[in-house]
Design a protein that fits this description.
Blueprint: H1 3-13, E1 18-19, H2 26-29, E2 40-44, H3 49-62, E3 65-69, E4 87-91, E5 98-102, E6 107-111, H4 116-125, E7 128-129, H5 142-147, H6 155-158, E8 165-171, E9 177-180, H7 193-197, E10 206-213, E11 215-216, E12 220-228, H8 231-245, E13 249-256, H9 257-266, E14 280-288, H10 292-308, E15 314-316, H11 321-332, H12 334-341, E16 348-350, H13 356-370, E17 375-381, E18 386-392, H14 406-419, H15 435-441, H16 444-457
Parallel strand pairs: 2-4, 3-4
Antiparallel strand pairs: 1-2, 5-6, 6-10, 7-11, 8-9, 8-10, 12-14, 12-15, 13-14, 13-17, 16-18, 17-18
Helix pairs in contact: 1-3, 8-10, 9-12, 13-14
Bound molecules: flavin-adenine dinucleotide.
């Protein structure tokens, strides 16, 4: 690669913050599961928006493409360079300053490399909450969260990342800094560029900072872990809880028996939570602005009704915050137990909530015909219609055997999702893994408009080539 480009990069960010040595790149070029890897010509770690702009301008001049990267916890290969060895990873990890907090206005301005967990903690110090929560929060960054329009467990109450962002600072493909760090909750002044960059997976610009909105912290959060006979009953329970407690409901997670068993198998300190085996469980959470007693009374009342109506077969109400955390630990260890179990064929889908039981029943039949005995690892954010539907090899078969049928399984699941008016990517994005699927399931009009947007904002295609769009 061009020696002049290398020396310019060194001057721009300092020798210590650019590496051309592949032996130092491993954590930047390998994904969280350790299943995907690429090759980077360089890893560059600027410290400010000005440095990012200068690096982008330099790469633009030399025709080097850039893969923006935050915590590298994305699940569709979006933050990885390809195998060509010609793409440069631009890590935002050193841009990790909380620039300001306005507690009265309930807004916080943070740099892109600040971790989601740090944002949550900073909000909490002000008696506020940043209500986006997910298993990767200790490692993922605000830049990545916004670039993937991440979801998580509280979407049914507060929306995705997009709903929690008021303004952005972005470096464009020409190396200009677009300062859109507005704190406005209403602003109808033309096209919404902010919303274009959110969810663009680093293909249109590099987010360097964001204004985030916060909400008052609840007085109490209480969870219940319930056992159910079917997904139909889980949907009916959601309806009941929403009718009874309205906006108090902040999480409603569906977990299949296979998931509970996997967690207990690989993490023996997280034992199977119910006395009897159950086909499904729901972990729900109420956030109460009155008091813990009020939350407890509400949750007990709802659970009594659920029992009366025959919706649940067992109810675990935590006696303490620590016990509540234990339940959430089980939920959050589902991805980790899958890593221990070995690779599986993954789908991150969303559906109209009422169609989820039908989807699960039909998907089970399809999988049984395509790969008899395969295990379905189904869990997800039922409250917003998002399921993680993963398919693993039958017990006793080598893990890899399921990949012999990967294409057929994924095609069948995607077709089923489309027939039920769902989405083939609910919250993880497209990255490089779903590029072909996107082209297949979006209309020609949508794909043409996508290409025109890319062409307008990044005509030389230097930002994350091969992600979302194939060219
Ligand atoms: C255990 C686990 C649990 C998870 N749970 C959830 C969940 O519940 N909900 C959910 O939505 N996701 C979940 N994820 C996926 C992942 O954590 C999210 O997608 C997260 O938002 C990615 O953030 P990151 O900083 O790691 O981004 P990265 O993985 O580094 O990047 C993701 C994408 O954003 C781009 N990007 C990163 N930073 C920038 C930037 N500053 N400017 C422009 N583009 C950028 C990258 O190029 C890439 O395309 C989970 C992942 C794991 C490992």
């Amino acid at each position: 690669m061009n020696l002049i480009w290398q020396s310019e990069l060194r001057q721009l960010v300092g020798d210590a913050y650019v590496s051309f040595n592949p032996s130092e790149h491993e954590r930047y070029v390998t994904d969280w599961f350790g299943r995907e890897a690429g090759v980077a010509v360089a890893v560059v770690r600027p410290r400010s928006a000005q440095e990012v702009a200068a690096v982008v301008a330099c790469c633009h001049r030399h025709g080097v493409s850039i893969v923006p990267q935050g915590g590298n916890t994305g699940l569709v290969g979006g933050a990885l360079p390809d195998a060509s060895g010609r793409q440069c990873v631009l890590s935002l990890e050193r841009m990790n300053t909380i620039r300001s907090i306005d507690a009265a206005g309930k807004v916080m301005t943070v740099e892109a490399g600040v971790l989601l967990a740090q944002v949550q903690a900073a909000a909490s110090c002000e008696g506020l909450e940043f209500p986006l929560s997910m298993g990767s929060e200790g490692s993922c960054t605000i830049g990545g969260v916004l670039s993937t329009n991440a979801g998580g467990t509280a979407v049914l109450r507060y929306g995705n990342a997009r709903a929690l962002c008021l303004g952005l600072e972005v470096v464009t493909a020409e190396g200009e800094i677009l300062n859109g760090l507005r704190q406005l909750r209403k602003d109808n002044t033309g096209y919404d560029l902010r919303d274009l960059f959110i969810g663009a997976e680093g293909t249109l610009g590099i987010i360097t900072a964001a204004v985030l909105s916060m909400v008052p912290a609840p007085k109490a959060k209480l969870s219940a872990f319930v056992a159910l006979e079917s997904a139909e009953k889980a949907v009916a329970l959601l309806d009941l809880v929403q009718a009874e407690v309205g906006p108090l409901l902040t999480a409603f997670e569906l977990i299949s028996n296979t998931c509970l068993k996997l967690v207990a198998q690989y993490f023996p300190n997280m034992a199977y939570p119910f006395a009897q085996s159950t086909p499904y469980a729901v972990l729900l959470e109420l956030s109460d602005h009155e008091s813990e007693e009020h939350a407890l009374t509400s949750i007990e009342r709802v659970m009594e009704r659920a029992i009366e109506r025959g919706l649940v077969t067992d109810v675990l109400l935590p006696q303490s915050l620590a016990q509540s955390k234990k339940f959430w630990n089980i939920r959050e260890h589902i991805p980790l137990s899958q890593v221990q179990d070995g690779k599986n064929v993954k789908h991150d889908i969303s559906l109209p909530i009422s169609k989820i039981p039908l989807f699960l029943a039909q998907a089970e039949r399809l999988i049984a015909s395509l790969h008899p005995g395969a295990r379905m690892i189904a869990f997800g954010h039922l409250g917003d219609g998002n399921l993680h539907f993963n398919v693993a090899a039958p017990l006793g078969q080598p893990v890899e055997t399921i990949f012999q049928n990967k294409a057929a399984i994924t095609d069948a699941i995607n077709e089923l999702v489309a027939s039920l008016n769902g989405s083939i990517s609910a919250e993880h994005g497209i990255g490089k893994m779903k590029v072909q699927d996107l082209a297949r399931f979006k209309s020609d009009v949508e794909m043409r408009l996508f290409r025109q947007i890319k062409q307008a904002l990044d005509p030389q295609c230097i930002f994350n080539p091969g992600k979302i769009l194939s060219h």
